[in-house]
Write a structure and sequence with these properties.
The protein is an alpha/beta fold. It folds into 2 domains: 289 residues, Alkaline Phosphatase, subunit A; 121 residues, Gyrase A, domain 2 (2-Layer Sandwich), CATH 3.30.1360. Helix content is 33%, strand content 19%. The protein contains 15 helices and 20 strands. The strands form 6 sheets. The protein has an 8-stranded mixed β-sheet. The protein has a 4-stranded antiparallel β-sheet with strand order 12-13-17-16. Helix 1 crosses helix 2, helix 7 packs across helix 8 and helix 8 crosses helix 9.
């Protein structure tokens, strides 16, 4: 029986993996890159470049317009009410639920909570709230508890103490590796998929520690990636030449230099107004005078009549308002630098049955910029003091590595995260 193994490193950019492999910090990745003989390449993430959207595309092989996940939060149709989409809101099947997909072990994949019945085992990843609802079959829960399994890092600790955060990060990683080892041995499976998500948390808080060799936590950053590299090597060594190994990330990362408050810009330009000034402003306070508003990280919605309860824009005026917004953000500058690399219309980047629920525009930032769209933070005077994050997501610098006999013919020329399922399908047909 041929087996497919997919290993994800959440948020790890191509250039970081290439760098640490070259330095010897990740010797197993260095060996895999050499064995792949060219089947190691940058990969584009989704737009926006957030984990819930990207992993939904990775596991379905679909773009957001086809699977219906556009961010960590979304709007209930016909309202300004925010909700957090979960696995039940995914509008396309993950590859392991398709007819004839075979038995699978799926571990810590973001946006797969709550777990549901499948042919195999599933431990849901971020944002999983309760272990009992994150695991299928539920009979696995006692053993996971014995292993000290942790659903995720307690990121709140990073806001108080980096030392406490790193301790929690290491314990979480160790529990994920222990669960992977156990499930590897537990039964026959055709597909084994594991995501390391501690990498994303590490990069958010300590990206500057990666770039600065003199940083207090530089060794801790490299040490965490070295542990993950050992786990990758352990799994890779258990495969033979008939098997498929895919190692990938869902998006890239880079240094965070400046945060841009999208709703504040809309407010300053007279495009966003609230009916009142509540202590915790939210979208329910949007005035009929509002023409546009944003959701994280930079999804802009026109306040269209027929789409929203207090919509003010007639359908025939949509193109005019879009042109105004595109001009505004295309020219946006901070300290003389362009802040927006690309203003994306939904029709340019999405297709499929969920297109009508997509944001009208999505902003892609230039290097170093991060967009924020939380009303409470943005409609008050933003603080000059940056938070604890030193790293931010990038869209163009995910990575893909494929090791198998047929890697050359399987690799797309310019891969995106939505190409991974198709790659596995082609391998299975060979």
């Amino acid at each position: 029986m041929r087996r497919a193994v997919i290993i994800g490193l959440d948020g790890m950019p191509y250039r970081l993996i290439a760098d640490l492999a070259g330095q010897g910090v990740m010797p197993n990745m260095r060996a895999l890159i050499a064995e792949a003989e060219g089947a190691f390449t940058p990969m584009e993430s989704t737009i926006p470049e957030v984990s819930s959207v990207a992993w939904s595309s990775i596991i379905t092989g679909k773009n957001p317009g086809e699977h219906g996940i556009f961010g960590f939060t979304d709007l209930r149709p016909g309202t300004y009410e925010l909700f957090f989409p979960n696995f039940n809101d995914l509008g396309a099947r993950p590859f392991w639920e398709r007819p004839g997909s075979g038995r699978a072990a799926i571990i810590n994949i973001p946006s797969t909570y709550p777990a549901r019945a499948m042919n195999g085992v599933l431990i849901a990843g971020f944002v999983a709230l309760e272990l009992e609802r994150a695991v299928y079959p539920p009979t696995l829960v006692p053993e996971l508890e014995r292993l000290g399994y942790r659903l995720d890092v307690d990121s709140a600790k990073g806001h108080r103490s980096i030392e406490l955060f790193l301790e929690d990060l290491e314990r979480t990683l160790e529990s994920h590796i222990a669960a992977a080892r156990w499930l590897w041995e537990e039964g026959a499976w055709e597909t084994f998929m594991l995501a390391f998500t501690t990498t994303d948390r590490l990069a958010h808080f300590l990206w500057e520690a990666y770039e600065d060799e003199q940083h207090q936590y530089h060794s801790a950053f490299l040490g965490h990636l070295h542990k993950i590299d050992r786990a990758i090597g352990e799994l890779a060594d258990r495969l033979d030449e008939r098997d498929l190994l895919v190692v990938l990330s869902d998006h890239g990362f880079e240094r965070l230099e400046e945060e841009v408050y999208v709703n504040l810009i809309l407010k300053e330009e007279g495009l966003l107004e609230l009916e009142e000034a509540p202590s915790a402003p939210d979208l329910e306070a949007i005035s009929p005078k509002t023409r546009a508003f944003a959701l994280d990280p930079a999804r802009i919605y026109l306040n269209l009549k027929g789409r929203f309860p207090r919509g003010s824009i007639e359908p025939e005026d949509r193109e005019k308002v879009l042109a105004e917004l595109i001009a505004l953000f295309s020219e946006l500058r901070r300290a003389g630098r362009r802040a927006v690399r690309r203003v994306c219309r939904k029709e340019e980047i999405y297709r499929g049955p969920w297109l009508d629920r997509a944001p009208d525009l999505v902003l892609l930032p230039e290097r170093g910029f991060a967009f924020r769209a939380r009303l409470k933070l943005e409609l008050e005077a933003p603080s000059e003091e940056r938070g604890p994050f030193t790293g931010k997501h990038t869209q163009e610098d995910a990575f893909l590595l494929v090791r198998c006999e047929e890697a050359d013919e399987l690799m797309p020329s310019r891969p995106t995260v939505a190409d991974v399922v198709g790659l596995i399908d082609r391998w299975q047909r060979l």
